[in-house]
Structure prediction request, 267 residues.
Amino acid sequence: MMQHTPAAAQQASRSQRDSETRARLEPGNSPPAIEVQDLGKSYRTARGTLHLFEHLNLRVESREMVAIVGQSGAGKSTLLHILGALDTPSSGRVYCASTDVTSLTPRQAAAFRNREIGYVWQFHYLLPEFTALENVAMPLLAGGIRRKEALEAASRWLAEVGLEERRDHRSGELSGGEQQRVALARALVSGPRLLLADEPTGDLDAMTAERIFEIVERLHASHGLTSILVTHNLDLAARCGRTLRLENGGLAEAAGASKCDPPGSIL
Prediction:
């Protein structure tokens, strides 16, 4: 019987990953919007090493809308940060828009985020000294777009979220729901393909949260986005195409997942 040494096993694993990468790039094989392979994330603490993720896998197809739920502290925000090239994993690979984001330099990662990803957080993080219009235009201005063009694009996006009449108001003059709509317009003004939202309705009352989610749904469909939302609101999560639960360092379908699926594998 043939015995495999650890070195041979590692070589076989690398060969399998290389074959999968080549297959993904061959003509006719449409790549997923996001593919996560054997993701690991660890932190050193005073009590030892904390393993947040181990061998976590995920595949999200283009134009999917996926919700990620789980208990506080499970690592949902950290996972979102890694998917969006804001944080780096301890091991594994993350492909986003056919780019291996785990291999990017900090400068390359910043350029990639600005080009491909729109972020919405629980708190809007608007700049209080600027108007709604200027806040939405900020990513374009930072990217070197001329002010006139940037403000015109920002105005169109404020209209998309129903705030064209509030364009000249500063953030302190807007309600919480209006501020979050401005943040959503700011996230999408650069035309990203991927929307990452971390508790986008978590700081809002139920009625306002419903309104924000309806806008996200509409923009997701009308602009052909791929959207991943972290949320504690199970009712809103159920309206996404899939709901995944993050627990014990892995992802599992929140409902209807096969009992034969290996832990941490959603492919």
Notes: The longest helix spans residues 6-25. The radius of gyration is 20 Å.
